[in-house]
Structure formats: structure tokens, C-alpha cells
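the two lines:
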Amino acid sequence: MTTRFTKDHEWIRIEGDVAVVGITAYAAEQLGDVVFVELPEIGKSVAQGGEMAVVESVKAASEVYAPATGEIVAVNDALEGEPAKVNDAPEGEGWFVKMKLSAPAELDAMMDEAAYKAHIA
Amino acid sequence: MADEANLQKTPLYDLHVELGAKMVPFAGYAMPVQYDGVMAEHNHTRAAAGLFDVSHMGQARVTGDEAALEALITADLAALGAGEQKYTLLLNDEGGIMDDLMVSRPDDSGLFMVVNAACKTSDFAHMRSRFGDRAQLHELTDRALLALQGPQAGAVMADLCPDAARLVFMQAGAFSLAGHDVLISRSGYTGEDGFEISVLAGEADALARRLLADERVKPIGLGARDSLRLEAGLCLYGHDMDETITPVEASLVWALAKSRRERADFPGAARILAQIANGAEKKRVGILPGDRAPAREGTEIVVEGESVGVVTSGGFGPTVGAPVAMGYVRADLAKPGQSVELMVRGKARPAVIAKTPFAPHRFHRG
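prediction for all of em together
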């Protein structure tokens, strides 16, 4: 499954019947050293573009928005002890949440990797 | 966001850009917020030596009757000997803090002051208006200011200017540093040993490059400057204090010279001495969040559901390895060890009032 991207620098990737969500390598680079990630409660419903998480660097706190509408079914608890995973592997071990999508077609309108690369260029 | 085109540039602007700094607007200047990253720069300063461009700060000389300046601040200038520097406060008539500043007597050419960038215009206007004809304020707009900070700063300085390396904490003098005539004080804003170096604007780039040629020295941006000073428990003007705050509330009574306190001849003396005698309603304290969530400026401080104060500076302390903060709480809750809660994004998180500094000061006291 290909990964899709938002203009706010989140990525979303379908894995089986859930979608995995995180922030892009570009976003992690812009933030600098991540020291804390506030993740949503499991079971929470989020709307596309709504506030989903907060990521904090040494200097500032930044909102992370839900790339798609759905329910949070898992969060990456490892980020509590090792928030630096967001810098080390933003599109791998540094994932934020897993979602059950209620409108998978929302992904069709999102950027693919090539379009995202052009967006941040 | 300030209009980028209207931002002033320090004499080191081209060097910052060349070094790959991320430039941001700060107090009307384009300033480097980071080069390699805040965490790496913070840690390098605590481990070796960092070079900071603080040319945006205001520098001035005062000549004439020094009592005209003394009347506006909390230092005893008659007791300020040759080669000495003091941290002092500029107070308004109500005893509120207009600025915090360094005043020194580095040579025979009068007092030398360094004030905050965001306050310099108002500070100097206030001083000139109160001086009248008694004293003269000469703003040194042709000078840059560099800070060399960290445990290796002394060794770096010793290689270039052994005389300046013999200064101890809060001493100042005029020196020749790598061929440049400079004013140097042994002080800073990181809690580490180090120096602040005032140099002619036209020579700043060459001096900065000479200092950076030493492999122990790396350029450090405003991001790490903020995390370093916060861990050191040092106030940031406009955040941890302002014109509505007295030195007693700001926990800065130590900056009030004993002789001035005895003479009760500083601005707002009646109010401030009454607060010293009877206590103030609120006090600046250190705060250690109990979990990993940083509590930023503006975070409400709560005890048993009641609002008792606010965070004025907060973030992550790389040396501490955890979030650190400072803020104001009701005076009866200001004792280290007091449990409080911090309202971070609507959620109460446990924290404790703590002693500052969070990272021990390592000044060179000789």
C-alpha cells in the first residue's frame, strides 16, 4: 500500500484493516529534537483535519492533525519513553497512532510521495 | 511575525547565514535560532564552549555624575570598583522592573552597561530623561557583543588573551583579543563559566571567525540560549518579569545592594521594603513537572482546583533530561517541595516547586 501525505506534513498508510499515521521526515526535521508526544485516547473519534496529537520539541509545542476521519484503535506507547524515535524513524518506528477509517475514500484526494516531495521542495 | 524586510541585521548576519543558521525575527533583529539543532548546541555549550551573537543587546557608556544612574537602579555604584561588574535592575517609580542589566567599570572611560534588546530604546530614553544635565548616556551602536560560554571557555580565552583569562566571575576589563581592542567581562547567561566580549562592529566578523577556528568552540543559537538560561534559573525579561513585578516578587532581592536597602533610596523603596518585611503576595519559583510533558509559558498552576499562579518560562531541559519551568505562585505555596498541578492542554499534570538552578552554576570564582 502506498503512503499518502497531507499538506500539514502527516503521513497515512493502510496496513491490513487499519491505517497507520505519523509525521513526515520533513516535519520531524523542521521540529528538531522531539522531547514529548501527547497521543489521543484509544477509542477516540477524530475528524479529518481535527486535532489529534501534540508533538513537543525543546523549543515549542506543535499540533498534529488527523489526516483522515475515523477511530483511534492503537497508539505508539514507545514514544512515551523514547520520543526521539520521531526524529530517528519518523515514517517507521516513530509512528503515532493506528486508525480505523470511516471514509477511506478521503485518501484518494491526498498527495502521493511524488506530490508531497514537490509540496515541500 | 515581524516584517522580514524591516529586520535589523547584526554585524554577524552573513556569518550566521554562511554557517547554515535558521534565522528568525527576535526583538526587531534577524537572529540565528539554531545551527545544528537546539539539543546538540545546548549540550555542546555544557560540555565544551559555545559562541553566541548577542549584538542585538543594547550597549552604552554613562559619564558624568554616576549618582544620576544609581538613583534609577539597585546597585551601589560608589562601591563598584575598577574592573568590577554587577547585575542590577532598572526600576520604575513604583518599584516595577523596567529591565535587568549588567553595569561595569572596565576602564577609565566611565560605566559600561549592557541592557536587553527589547528594552534598549525605552531604557535609554528613561535614563536620558532622568539624567538631565547631570550625566551623559552614550549608546554604543557601533559595537557588537559576543558571548563565549562553557567549561572550556577559559582555556580558549587563555590561548588568545591570557590576561582576560585571569578575570574571575563578574570582573571586567579592556583587553587586546587576537588583535582587537575589546571589553571583556567574565559572565554570561548560561550558568556556565564564560565571557561577554564587546567589539567594534567592523571587527566582529573577524573575531567571531577567530574564536570559531578553535575546535572547542561551536556557534550557538537563541534556542539553546533559552534552554541554557532556563536550566540556570535566570530570568528572561518580558516573560519572567516585567514592569508590574517587583524584585521581591521576582525573587531577585539579592540584586538589591545592602547599602541601597539601608538607605532606602531606590525607586519604589517604600513598596519594596514593605514587601521584604511583610512578604509579597506572589513569588517567582522553579517548577519541575512530574512527567514528560513540558509546561510552556502561560500554563496555569493549580492547587486543589484553585488557580494559584502561572508558568512564565517552560520547556525541556536537555542537561536535566526532563521538562523544567519557572513561574509565579501564591507566596504561601512557594516553598520547594510544594506539590502543584499544571494545566497542560486542559489536563492537570503533577509538578513540584523546586529550587533553581536546575543545572548547577559553574562560574569561575577564582
